[in-house]
Amino acid sequence: MEANASRYHGKAPEELDWTEKQRQKRAVAEYLVALEGESEPNPDRKPPKVISPSDPQSAWTAKANKRVQFGYGLNYLIDIENAVIVDVEATPARTYDEVVATQTMLDRTEQRFNLKPKRLAADTAYGTGKFLGWLLKKKKIIPHIPVWEKSDRRDGIFSRSDFRWDSKRGVYVCPNGKLLRTSGTVHDGRTLLYRASKRDCHVCPIRAKCCTSLDARKIPRDLHEDARDIARRKMKTKAFAKSRDERKRVEMRFAHLKTHHGFERMRLRGLSGARDEFHLAAIVQNLKTLALRILGPPPPKRKPALVVSVP
Hints:
The protein folds into two domains: 13-146 and 235-294, no CATH class; 160-226, no CATH class. The termini are far apart. The chain has eight helices and ten strands. With 311 residues, it is of the alpha+beta class.
């Protein structure tokens, strides 16, 4: 959702020098308090390149193929069967924050309403190994989420999917039958690297399709790759196809906000302002759903009868 901030007045973080008058504004004060509360930077969260002086908590984004603008993420947790919004969370319009918001909403819904869903449907942005692992191992929720794949290649070189994973031995087997092993070192806090032997690669008859400029082929494996494999298997089931169709009801919620309620741009600033607006929007939508359930759909509009006067 577009923030109440001009897309033409963004500045780089090092260019910002808050005046005393700016510090007294609620949106800026919230931002500065949040900065002071951060003990150390999160390596998984990229620092912003552009910040709005009027609403610094909004994110500089070009999501959904729209123009680049400052915005907030409207995150709904919806009971698809009944089309009821059970929780809302406002975040800056960044994928990382929106995925974390889903964890917050699931935990909060379980605490408040004792709701423990058996499955969760979402789009590909949520198909990361870390989130899928959290869903399966900690929450025991089946993910109906497309896996976020980055390893497929289009240049004729073998992709990671061409290498077979041997779970018993904990190794990858290449298309020529050779083994790729890992030293156990974790890279970037979430990845293991499996490497082939240089001797095997140098004499391999299909080296041209596997190694380009490297001495030996290496394959990255997410620490939560087992969870990703489970999600991949779920993608082939009828239940997943049903969830994919039912997600249209979720997308309609966001479409109705803009087409029926004219909610295309924020009126308030700051994360607390976004939170207030998003909660009010969810309340309105749930009240409409309740009215439709109790009273039924409104009667169709009748066209007025034509009256022809004969002179």
